[in-house]
Design brief:
Length: 192
């Protein structure tokens, strides 16, 4: 079993997918702490509903990014987290957090890296007109969306897809792939 911390900034559907996979016995993990970079996001409600402790940060906390990450790292370590899963976390992770969890911070990106990095991976791929895009799970490091890739899954863009239908397809794949990768880490099938 792995002890996870999850970092969010928004709706938390990937967090929910992890909570559901744990409840279904498909993911041998315990989420010890959910950290949100924003107050009052729906993902915090999902955590509370599942009985998971939360830490809600706010924009002012990030005025000093390293101080914010020191605080987050301390809270994650105090909660006993071994791995950290970023799930829609819209802040850069900096040295104090990276060094507290070396090669143990994982991120999900809604495109096939190294294509379409950044905060709008789905829309950027759609607007570019690619016929195949997808989902990437990778290790986070000091360069945004650049860490070593752990898993990828392709998603075809159909001629009649709209941005909204493509978003739905990508999210459905994310919700399957992320818990699977975490389970592969938990069972030792995937060794980092
Ligand atoms: C996901 O598409 C993820 O790939 C990206 O941000 C989105 C988060 O969605 N990094 P949610 O908060 O898990 O619903």
């Amino acid at each position: 079993m792995i002890r996870l911390g999850v970092l969010i900034s928004g709706s938390g559907t990937n967090l929910q997918a992890m909570i559901d996979a744990i409840a279904a016995g498909e993911l041998d993990a315990k989420i010890e702490l959910v950290v949100s970079s924003r107050e009052s996001v729906y993902g915090l409600k999902r955590a509370e509903a599942a009985g998971i402790p939360t830490l809600a940060m706010c924009a002012a906390d990030y005025a000093d990014r390293e101080a914010a990450d020191r605080r987050i790292a301390e809270a994650l370590l105090a909660a006993g987290c071994e791995y950290v899963a970023m799930a829609g976390y819209m802040r850069m992770v900096t040295e104090p957090l990276l060094s507290a969890f070396p090669n143990r911070i994982i991120n999900i990106h809604p495109a096939l890296l190294p294509s379409f990095k950044g905060a709008h991976g789905i829309a950027d791929a759609f607007e570019y007109g690619v016929k195949v895009t997808g989902v990437t799970v990778h290790i986070a490091n000091e360069e945004y969306d650049c860490g070593p890739i752990l898993a990828q899954r392709a998603v075809e863009v159909a001629d009649d897809d709209t941005l909204e239908s493509l978003e739905d397809k990508i999210h459905a794949v994310e919700h399957e792939l992320y818990p699977q990768v975490l389970q592969d880490i938990a069972t030792g099938k995937l060794v980092i």
